[in-house]
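Example 3.
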Amino acid sequence: MVMTADAEGSTLQLRDVRKSFPDPDDPVNRRLVLSGISISLATGELVSLIGPSGCGKSTLLRLIAGLETPDSGDLLIGTEAIRGPSAERGLVFQDPNLFPWLTVRRNIEAGLVARGLLQEKKTEVDEFMRLVELQAFANAFPHHLSGGMAQRVALARALINHPKVLLLDEPLGALDAFTRMRMQDEVLRLWSARRSTTLLVTHDIDEAIYMSDRIMIMTPRPGRIDQIIPVELERPRHRSNPQFLQLRGEILDLLHFAGGERMKSGNANTPVV
Amino acid sequence: MRNGDDATAAISPPKPPPVSVAASLRTLSIFAGSVALALLMHLIISRNEPPLETRFYTIFLGSVFAIAVITAPAQIFLPRLRRIRQNLHPILTAATLLLCLWEIVTSGVRLLPLPYFPGPAKVLHSLISDRLLLFDSTWHSLLLLLSGYALGVIAGLITGLCIGWSPPVRYWGMPLLKVVGPIPATAWIPLAMVVSPSTMFSAVALIALAVWFPVTMLTASGISNTRASYLDVARTLGAGRGYLIFRVAVPAASPNIFIGLFMGLGASFLTLVVAETVGVRSGLGWYVSWAQGWAEYGKVFAALVIMAAFFSTIMTVLFKVRDRMLVWQKGVIKW
């Protein structure tokens, strides 16, 4: 098993990041999606990003992944600026996006094949198959897998590259409630084994409190970081713990309160999570 | 929606239900009966024909009848054979009855004008007596078809890949493809005859052209419709351009590419026969027009029978190749 206590992650820093897209209704104009995003993640930290849909959470993740380039601002991994996608920043989507033409094992190997490291690190494939408990499905094709299993494969596929930063874009959003709770533990187990710096986009307040060290709340149009809430609960956490519930209440309150404020300032249709 | 971890993999196909001996015997006797009927009709009809010309067909029907009768007891002990036969019998019975009907309509009551519509006995006779020339023609057709098809597929895959992947190539290539591609390859024949040094060479080029268009079209559309998220995932896994093209876009496009390969194969059959009829002095297409020139319609039909077997065999081979390569689609789509 890969059970190193040393963090594999790296710090992640965003300074005043701004991103706009061409307006689909009016191609001459650009629509501002993210404005003045400055965040900083410590090595091995797990931070959640919550906010209403359309607030640019996914765009922020795509910027960090290097799939989009910002209009302005700096994005740094450690001390290095992000330039394009790379294996050091793993990304897992809500849809597992497994390659349907590859078996489970070959999907997990994909990152090694892409980087020409398969021969060197063949044994690691077995380790990761074991880590996500999918040995029995090594030769199955993705459409034979359930949603939870498919997402475990997607996680293993991202983790085999030992990413410094793991970006999770609502990875558990499509799962049913029970599978989701089981997968939250699974992700936490992988995270504590690997200590990749992890940024988790979610729309589930419980999930954010249960999993993360800090919660960042975003507001939409243009998206910006509104609040940063530290979660100072002992791990492993309990969903019915009074402190857990209190924090949950506070965040809900905060979101309602934030919604009310927006209305006064003329930004009427900010939906609450 | 795939939910819940307990959904397990359905890996082995369900076993077909066992076939009872009695049911099998019933279908078997129907088949044997139909063969007996065909044989009887043949013997009655062929009384007035020269015996040499009908002998092969008599032997053929006789041996089919013998097989039908002999396998009856054998299938009691061999469940595998029983299942195969059970499956095949309805279609074999229908085929036998169709042969019988053909013989009645042609040689029997002469409903269709002779010599244009010979009976099955005559066709089988031509098939066997002219087997050397037919074999030689089939061989030439196979060589011509395979070289033209291979050339067209290779060219089509390359151009399709370039057009599908690269926007500039798409911008310049697509209009050309859309204007030139739909011209039937056979329409180039007059030009090809003038330009090319040998008819063989021009026939290969024409078949390749006929194959190239659908393969290019379908490959290009498959490649350019690769799901963006697959490419995004691959990029965050550290994939370079080679991986993105050959390990993501090409497999993602492969169902489309196979449609192109099938369409190309159909076009290649057509072009092959036309090219052999008008230019190339060998092959099945040439054989048909040659036999027709001598008014030997038995041979014309014999060549058609060979063509049917020949083309459908090649088609089947391509299906097998697809089944192997797209095995990951099994259970996702219906084929």
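The two ends of chain B are 22 Å apart (CA to CA). Chain B touches chain A through 35 residues (CB under 8 Å).
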